[in-house]
Each structure stands twice: as structure tokens, then as C-alpha cells.
């Protein structure tokens, strides 16, 4: 028996999810496709994502009584982190003799090689992908060849898909816009009846953010986050940034700082994010990227300026916005910082961002060089940009 496994948050499940699974089933002669919503751990905001039982029910409504599909609550009822390798082990144990096909979209497929226990995943399932979102079949086949060299069995199918995403759906639903053709009628009615996705605002949730941080960070890192938020609000007033956005970015900038490397790679894989070579070689910098992914994909924060501020608070970049500059310097100058010359940088930051940025970037580059570590191109670009006076949009 051939079984396809399609996992995801499904927040909400849409027609392209179902089409992808159906097409794979037809082309690969699958007898059954299991739709597997992931568990959302209790450390995530209660209103950052639809409740697990709602997501499970929407999956059931989306496939209806089609005998091809089976909706499983395994990852939800198991609890804890939803690692694909654990689910595959469960399938292999409970359905011996079955051939398993792991169905993925393009972005996710391009990160498979970094997933937790990839070798075991490759040994248990055929890895399947289809082009989507600008990723071509040729790109997928090239990556598949590298995975094959590591023992993986890969299938790339040219399945024509519309560019529908759960993120876009949530925006439309929050704005009351038409979603006809994007989600099944029964799913749309369920969402309306349950009042899901009414708002995407990230403001007015400070108490929830603080509770979330307490559960994810050590006491020292938690205190640092509070200090950076306070400093960010202060500097926002000097640099012309939005103080409310500065506080949110300051509170959440290190939300992934103490998350394991395995979990960070899994999150990046789940959301189709590929780290460049320099960042991949510097795990201490991952939390900027994974933090922005967590904010967007889990906390449903859609504000690009906040997301970019978190994304680049470790490396900086050319053309930073006032909010990005605010967070970058707030992280350097918060009240809990006690490194040598911090008072010098605080004085510069009070006078304006330009000289403070020159000092902070010079400090960063010099420190990395002394430790014989790579300097990210974004950091060099930021330094060159601020020196040339072309720093802000």
C-alpha cells in the first residue's frame, strides 16, 4: 500500500493543499493520503493561530467524504514538538509494509536537507515536491540530486498550482474580502461560524507576549528583552520610529535566542526558509531569521517593519528603516549591557543614530575579525552604507 503524508499547520487549509495531495496521489498511484495538522505547543499565543481542534475540523471539512483522504490527529494528540521523523516512525510502526511518500511544497522541499535527523527521514519516505511560488522544476530537480547523493529517494512532479497561501487567506478573512475558490465552502462557513481570523493586529498583546517570553527564555534573557523594549521606545522618540512597533520588536527580538538548533532548523523548514552560507555557519545568528519567521508564521504579525527589525537586529543591512536602526542600537545599549565602551555608544545613540551606527558596526566587524569568524555581507553593506551617508530609505 502506498501512503502519502501531507503535514502542515493548515491555518487554514485551502484548495491548493487538497489539489497538491490529489495530484500526487494520481501521479504516484497513492492508495491513501494522510492530512496531518501539526501540534501548536502551549508556549504560543492562544490567539496567534486557530485552535488545534478548529484546524483539525477544517481539514476534515476540506476533504469531505473523499475515500482517498484520511485526516489524522496524531501530532496534535501526541503533543510536544512536531518533528517529521517522529511521525514517520509512528507510521512505519503502525502501518508495516506500507511505502510512505512525504509530500511537500517547493519551499519546504528546498530545506529538507537541514531537517532534524534527515538521514532517517530519507530512509523512511520518498521525498516529493512540486514547483510553487517562483521555484522552478529545474531548481527542485537540482536540489533533489544533492539529496539523492545523501541516500534520499526523490520525486519532482510538475503540478500546476495557483499562488494561494494560508497567510494571504488570513489577511483576506481578517479584512472580510472574498475567498471564493480559495477554500472549500464548508471550511468558509466553519470559519465564519467560529469567528476565526478576525484580527491580525500585534498591538495590545503585551501581557501575552510577556507570558510567552517567560516560557521560552531564561531569566537573564527575559530581563534583557524587557530592557531592550524600554530602550527601543526611548530611541524611537529620537529617531522618528513608531514607539508601539519599537516596543513589540524590542520585546520579541530574542524570542528564538535560546531555542535549540534542531528546532530552529525545523521551523525554517516548515516555513520554507533557506539560510545563506554565512548565517548557516554562525548558529548564534540564526535567531534573527527564525525569530522573524516565528513572528510571521506563528504569532501572525504581518507588519513588515517589525519583522525586518527582528530579522536584521544581529547583522544589520544597508537601507535600514528608522525602526530597524532603533532596535539594532537598543540591543547594543539597553540598561543591562555592561561590555567595555557601552557608555560611549549610549552617548552616541542619544546624540543621533549615524555615529552610533558607525561605532556599533565597527565594533561588530572588529570583534568578528579578532575571533576569526565570517562577517556577513549584510553587515559590511550596512557599514559601507552608513559611511557613505546613504543609510536610511
Question: Would you mind describing this structure in some detail?
Answer:
There is one protein chain. The chain has 393 residues and is α/β, with parallel strands linked by helices. Strand 1, helix 1 and strand 2 form a beta-alpha-beta unit. Helix content is 54%, strand content 8%. It folds into two domains: 2-194, Rossmann fold (3-Layer(aba) Sandwich), CATH 3.40.50; 206-387, Orthogonal Bundle (Hypothetical protein af1432). It has 20 helices and six strands. The N and C termini lie far apart (57 Å). The radius of gyration is 22 Å and the shape is globular. The model has no long low-confidence stretch (mean pLDDT 89).
Name a few traits of the molecule.
393 residues; alpha/beta; Rossmann fold; Hypothetical protein af1432; 2 domains; 6-stranded parallel β-sheet; 20 helices; globular
In the predicted model, the low-confidence regions spanning at least 5 consecutive residues are none
| Strand order in the sheet with the most strands | 3-2-1-4-5-6
Major β-sheet annotation: 6 strands, parallel
CATH class annotation of the largest domain = Alpha Beta
CATH topology value of the largest domain: Rossmann fold
Look at the helices and sheets and give the structural class: alpha/beta
**Count of the domains:** 2
Question: What's the total count of β strands?
Answer: 6
Instruction: Tell me the span between the first and last alpha carbons.
Output: 57 Å
Q: What best-fitting shape do the alpha-carbon axes yield?
A: globular
> CATH homologous superfamily of the largest domain - what is it?
HUPs
Number of helices in the DSSP assignment: 20
Mean pLDDT across all amino acids: 89
What is the CATH architecture descriptor of the largest domain? 3-Layer(aba) Sandwich
Please indicate the percent range of residues in DSSP E strands (runs of 2 or more). Answer: 5-15%
Quaternary state of this entry equals single chain
Order of helices and strands: EHEHEHHEHHEHEHHHHHHHHHHHHH
What is the gyration radius calculated from CA atoms? 22 Å
As a percent range, the share of helical residues equals: 40-55%
Amino acid at each position: 500500500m502506498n501512503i502519502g503524508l501531507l503535514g502542515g499547520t493548515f491555518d487554514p487549509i485551502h484548495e491548493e493543499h487538497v489539489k497538491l495531495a490529489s495530484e500526487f496521489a494520481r501521479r504516484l498511484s497513492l492508495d491513501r493520503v494522510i492530512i496531518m495538522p501539526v501540534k501548536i505547543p502551549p508556549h504560543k499565543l492562544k490567539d496567534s493561530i486557530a485552535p488545534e481542534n478548529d484546524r483539525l475540523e477544517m481539514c476534515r471539512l476540506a476533504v469531505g467524504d473523499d475515500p482517498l483522504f484520511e485526516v489524522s490527529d496524531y501530532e496534535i494528540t501526541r503533543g510536544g514538538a512536531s518533528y517529521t521523523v517522529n511521525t514517520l516512525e509512528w507510521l512505519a510502526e503502525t502501518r508495516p509494509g506500507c511505502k510512505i511518500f512525504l509530500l511537500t511544497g517547493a519551499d519546504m522541499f528546498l530545506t529538507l536537507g537541514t531537517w532534524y535527523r534527515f538521514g532517517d527521514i530519507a530512509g523512511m519516505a520518498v521525498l516529493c515536491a512540486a514547483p510553487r511560488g517562483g521555484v522552478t522544476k529545474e531548481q527542485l530537480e537540482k536540489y533533489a540530486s544533492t539529496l539523492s547523493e545523501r541516500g534520499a529517494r526523490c520525486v519532482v512532479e510538475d503540478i500546476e498550482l495557483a499562488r494561494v497561501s494560508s497567510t494571504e487567506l488570513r489577511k483576506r478573512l481578517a479584512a472580510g474580502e472574498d475567498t471564493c475558490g480559495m477554500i472549500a465552502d464548508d471550511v468558509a462557513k466553519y470559519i465564519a461560524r467560529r469567528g476565526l481570523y478576525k484580527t491580525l493586529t500585534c498591538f495590545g498583546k503585551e501581557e501575552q507576549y510577556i507570558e510567552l517570553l517567560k516560557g521560552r527564555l531564561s531569566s537573564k534573557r527575559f530581563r534583557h528583552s524587557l530592557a531592550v523594549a524600554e530602550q527601543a521606545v526611548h530611541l524611537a522618540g529620537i529617531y522618528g520610529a513608531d514607539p508601539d512597533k519599537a516596543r513589540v520588536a524590542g520585546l520579541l527580538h530574542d524570542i528564538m535566542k535560546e531555542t535549540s538548533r534542531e528546532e530552529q532548523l525545523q521551523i525554517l523548514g516548515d516555513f520554507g526558509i533557506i539560510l545563506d552560507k554565512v548565517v548557516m555557519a554562525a548558529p548564534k545568528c540564526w535567531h534573527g531569521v527564525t525569530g522573524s519567521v516565528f513572528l510571521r508564521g506563528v504569532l501572525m504579525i504581518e507588519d513588515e517593519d517589525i519583522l525586518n527589525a527582528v530579522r536584521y537586529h544581529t547583522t544589520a543591512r544597508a537601507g535600514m528603516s528608522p525602526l530597524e536602526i532603533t532596535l539594532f542600537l537598543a540591543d547594543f545599549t539597553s540598561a543591562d549591557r555592561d561590555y567595555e565602551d557601552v557608555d560611549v555608544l549610549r552617548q552616541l545613540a542619544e546624540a543621533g543614530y549615524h555615529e552610533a551606527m558607525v561605532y556599533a558596526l565597527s565594533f561588530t566587524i572588529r570583534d568578528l575579525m579578532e575571533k576569526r569568524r565570517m562577517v556577513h555581507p549584510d553587515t559590511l553593506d550596512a557599514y559601507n552604507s552608513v559611511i557613505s551617508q546613504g543609510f536610511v530609505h
